[in-house]
Amino acid sequence: MPDTPEPWRLVNFLDRLDLWIGLESPPEEIRRLVTTWIFTRTDDPYQGARREPGFANLWFSSIPRSEHKDWSAVCCSFWIDERDHVVRCDSFATLNRPV
Length: 99
Description:
This protein is of the alpha+beta class and 99 residues long. It is 25% helix and 31% strand.
């Protein structure tokens, strides 16, 4: 039987998702897209993310295809604890893309 990597444990993602939805009231399509993206973190939390300079283990990702409100996209910041194999959500926000 081949060794399969252990999935990462996700913490606070759904609470932070609910908070973001309550604050920003994004369209249903964007909510579903972000929810689906959350579960991709169990396989590889580093995919499409970049480490934030000056912070140990803080990562940032723009969620693919989440553009709405003209030039805005949904982004997520999260902490990765490699020792405990945990990904802890910090926040979701809709941010303007740089011009």
